[in-house]
Design brief:
The complex is a heterotrimer of chains A (279), B (243) and C (263). Chain A has 279 residues and is α/β, with parallel strands linked by helices. Chain A is 25% helix and 17% strand. Chain A folds into three domains: 12-128 and 170-221, 3-Layer(aba) Sandwich (Rossmann fold); 131-168, no CATH class; 233-279, no CATH class. In chain A, strand 2 (63-67), helix 3 (75-88) and strand 3 (91-92) form a beta-alpha-beta unit. Chain A is globular and about 55 Å long. The two termini of chain A are 22 Å apart. By secondary structure, chain B is an alpha/beta fold. Helix content of chain B is 30%, strand content 26%. Chain B has six helices and ten strands, in the order βββαββαβαααβαβββ. The longest helix of chain B is centred in the C-terminal third of the chain and has 16 residues, at 187-202. Chain C is globular and about 55 Å long. Chain C has helices at residues 51-58, 85-95, 103-106, 113-123, 129-142, 159-171, 189-206, 217-223, 241-246, 251-258, and strands spanning 13-22, 25-35, 40-44, 66-73, 76-79, 96-99, 177-181, 209-214, 226-231, 234-240. With 263 residues, chain C is an alpha/beta fold. Chain C has one domain: P-loop containing nucleotide triphosphate hydrolases (Rossmann fold, 3-Layer(aba) Sandwich), CATH 3.40.50.300. In chain C, strand 4 (66-73) and strand 5 form a beta hairpin. Classes of the chains: A alpha/beta (279), B alpha/beta (243), C alpha/beta (263). Chains in contact: A-C, B-C. Chain B binds chain C through residues 16-20, 57, 61-64, 86-91, 93-94, 107-110, 118, 121-122, and chain C through 2-8, 36, 39, 193-194, 196-197, 200, 222, 225-226, 239-240, 242-243, 246-247, 249-251, 254-255, 258.
């Protein structure tokens, strides 16, 4: 580990500041806590919020897993792992069960999380009310006074346009019967995994400088209508690699004639299911 | 026993101050008093500018009274229009004092029939019943039925005035103020209006009117009030021609 | 006006000694008036006379410098300028409507007509899409917009339609009072007539109170029971609409009335 970096890149005072915001976020589930976001050596939109959270909570004994689009080996995932290997000298892993901290952008792993694990989400747009009310001064008040009815306008527009709730990612949830929260761009398929999860879920938005959290065993309910209840997506097929029918599948077009196949979005889960082991 | 008045003017005063015309002040009434009785027709006379329309508008509450009292017996209780709260004036206009102005204030897009029945609906009359009454009255006033559902915007002056009269006569009022109701009507319709006024009088309505042509009120007038003599004393002249 | 306001001892809205200063600039000064249930009040005066400032203070959009805005709600008589902000927002949201001159400010232009009407229903806790849809369709019809246009964006509507949509979106949750800031300005005369007609029917049918800010005296006469005349932030004259328009007393009111063609 080069001596020119502090442990996990950030200086201790910055980490302390971020940890204080995290504690506040955990104390008020779903509430967006402002924090003094630092410049990180990667551009906004690449996970600057998540990387600061990871840097603030990681310790020498942690095993870090990073996934991007469900995959452990995309450029972004590998770069972030390399970053912490270099600056914190910690161990990295692809194994969900072995990981103590999992930083992610688009997915929650299929393998059920356990108590003691920390999920870190990279969030592009933390404000779920932005669609209905662009003024930040107003959204703050709407959260404060729990004026959430208009959140359903977005879902209404979906049904009016498509005949169903077409929002498939970043599907708004209510946390602990109080704050409406954007679960970041995870598919709505993953929303139920947040509900009463034994793990800690931390959300960081670098550009917007906001942190929010779902502590373990907290109610997380997806918004819906009585006559259009929340539904998970279904696929008419199984994973072409592992045969799974109970995971989130990506559709891949394999040739110019439109032949398609489905494979698991969670690469680690898929490999494990097909009997492969990890290095 | 002397009959009970229904309207009592007590030392009323009215002047107009025209700020935009060098502060010209015109005094129209200076401590004028008069009593009006149910079932009687009083005709206001006097040259133009003597305050005939002004008096009708003061009684209706449109012109504010400078001094004195305008007592109206409303649901058996005297109410001073000169000092009444707005809510009371709304009620008086709905239930007690009717007013037929010289011209219909046409509201675009509102049909002639709807214009006529509005006073009935204001008294919460059932719509069907109101429509029935409205149609009958329009028929009596010779408005062709194919015009009932049109807005009066495009009607002639005489037709508009008959809509206005229908609106004024559709609901019975204890006091009815008429400001030249027969102007711009032909002889046939003029007679119908005179009949309507007589029916109202028979119904014990107190009628106070201004008429352009004395021939129009000869039939029913109980007395005339010459407002040009007001500043002296004997303004009231009994009408002998009434049959 | 078809329906006359109730002879109610308790006003629905009572503004008392309301003043607003923008720094040293006067918005409105020492304004007091009350609105009974079902009563339509007009505030007239030229641009810059403080009409809109007054309306914004009532609507809780501007914090007045002094004075009170009492509202008779289910919680009793509440001073909106002094009560808990959550309660103030709740009263404003559930019991008042606000229609602006510029529909683009009052409507959400990126949300369909149906969504705009449904917003207040959803805000009020309605969670049944079918019901919301049904009410939105009914309201489009009431304000004379083709129900076929329910899924179209307001940006594709004409100015008059946008204004009527704004009215529907504000009335759908049955508020007690509508605050309207020059709703007819900027519309063609024929379009204005339709809007006024729609308003007239709604006001009398729903027994709604209204504070209408306008500089159009003909509109004021047609819709309002009573008028308040404002000049340079002060209330100079008030009375029944016909009293103000047919027997104006103050120099400014006489000027105002004599400046228009036969209101």
């Amino acid at each position: 580990m080069p001596l020119s970096y502090n442990f996990a890149y950030l200086d201790e005072q910055s980490k302390k500041m971020i940890r204080r915001s995290i504690l506040k976020a955990i104390a008020i589930p779903g509430f967006q806590v402002p924090f003094g976001g630092r410049e990180m050596p990667l551009p906004y939109g690449w996970g600057t919020g998540g990387i600061q959270l990871t840097a603030a909570v990681i310790g020498p004994d942690d095993r870090l897993k990073v996934i991007d689009q469900g995959s452990d080996d995309t450029v972004n995932a590998i770069s972030i792992k390399a970053f912490f290997k270099k600056t914190a000298g910690i161990e990295t892993t692809e194994d969900t069960e072995r990981a103590t901290i999992i930083q992610t952008r688009h997915r929650i792993p299929e393998t059920p999380l356990q108590n003691g694990q920390i999920m870190v989400f990279q969030v592009p747009i933390p404000e779920p009310l932005q669609f209905i009310e662009p003024k930040k001064s107003q959204t703050v008040k709407m959260h404060g006074f729990e004026e959430y009815g208009s959140m359903h306008v977005k879902l209404y527009e979906d049904i009016a346009k498509f005949g169903r709730i077409a929002t498939a990612f970043d599907y708004p949830v209510q946390v602990h019967q109080r704050y409406i929260m954007s679960p970041s761009p995870i598919p709505k398929y993953d929303n139920p995994k947040l509900h009463r999860s034994p793990a800690v879920h931390l959300f960081g938005a670098g550009r917007e400088k906001r942190i929010y959290a779902v502590p373990p065993y907290t109610d997380v309910v997806s918004l819906d209508f009585e006559d259009y209840p929340f539904e998970l997506e279904k696929w008419d097929g199984a994973c072409a690699v592992c045969g799974s029918t109970d995971s989130f599948l990506d559709e891949i077009i394999t040739d110019d004639t439109g032949t398609r196949m489905f494979i698991c979005s969670d690469t680690e889960y898929c490999q494990k299911k097909s009997g492969n082991t990890f290095s | 026993m002397a009959p009970r008045w229904i309207l009592k003017l007590e030392n009323i005063e009215k002047d107009f101050l025209f700020h935009l015309q060098q502060g010209t002040r015109i005094v129209v009434f200076d401590r004028f008093s008069h009593l009006f009785y149910p079932g009687r027709a009083s005709i206001l006379t006097g040259p133009s500018g003597s305050g005939k329309s002004t008096l009708l508008r003061m009684i209706y509450g449109t012109y504010r009274t400078g001094g004195g009292h305008i007592w109206v017996r409303h649901r058996d209780r005297p109410v001073d229009i000169a000092a009444a709260a707005p809510a009371m004036i709304y009620t008086l206009r709905r239930d007690t004092i009717g007013y037929v102005s010289q011209f219909l204030r046409v509201v675009p897009r509102v049909s002639a029939l709807d214009t006529v029945i509005e006073p009935l609906l204001a008294r919460n009359m059932d719509l069907e019943k109101a429509l029935k009454k409205g149609r009958a009255l329009l028929e009596r006033l010779n408005i062709p039925s194919n015009m009932w559902h049109l807005s009066a915007t495009t009607f002639s002056g005489g037709e508009q005035q008959r809509i206005n009269l229908a609106r004024g006569f559709i609901a019975p009022f204890p006091i009815l103020l008429l400001d030249e109701p027969t102007a711009s009507l032909d002889l046939k319709n003029r007679q119908i209006v005179i009949d309507l006024i007589k029916e109202a009088l028979a119904d014990n309505t107190c009628v106070i009117g201004v008429f352009h042509d004395p021939a129009d009120h000869r039939d029913f007038a109980d007395h005339t009030i010459d407002l040009s003599l007001m500043l002296n004393q004997e303004v009231m002249q009994p009408c002998t021609q009434k049959n | 006006m078809t329906r006359m306001p109730e002879n109610s001892p308790q006003p629905l809205l009572a503004v008392q000694h309301l003043s607003k200063f923008f720094g040293r600039q006067l918005g409105c000064h020492d304004i007091s008036f009350a609105v009974s249930p079902g009563e339509v009040i007009g505030v007239v005066g030229e641009s810059g006379s403080g009409k809109s400032t007054l309306l914004n203070c009532i609507a809780g959009r501007i914090k007045p410098s002094n004075g009170s805005v009492f509202f008779h709600s289910s919680e009793g008589m509440t001073d909106l300028c002094r009560c808990d902000e959550a309660l103030m927002r709740k009263i404003i949201r559930t019991q008042t409507g606000y229609v602006t001159q510029n529909a683009a400010q009052g409507l959400k232009m990126h949300i369909s007509a149906g969504g705009n009407i449904g917003e207040k229903l959803m805000a009020g806790g309605m969670r049944h899409y079918g019901q919301i849809r049904k009410m939105a369709l009914a309201w489009l019809e009431r304000v004379e917009i083709d129900p076929e246009r329910i899924d179209d964006l307001p940006a594709t509507f004409s100015g008059g339609m946008q204004q009527r949509l704004q009215i529907a979106a504000n009335l759908v949750n049955a508020p007690k009072i509508m605050l309207m800031d020059e709703p007819t300005s900027g519309l063609d005369v024929s379009v204005q007539a339709r809007l006024i007609d729609v308003l007239r029917k709604l006001v009398s049918g729903l027994h709604l109170s209204m504070v209408l800010v306008t500089h159009d005296l003909a509109v004021a006469r047609l819709l309002c029971h009573r008028l308040y005349v404002m000049k340079q932030g002060e209330m100079v004259e008030s009375g029944l609409s016909d009293q103000i328009l047919d027997d104006p007393r103050q120099p400014y009111t006489q000027l105002l009335v004599s400046s228009v063609l036969k209101p």
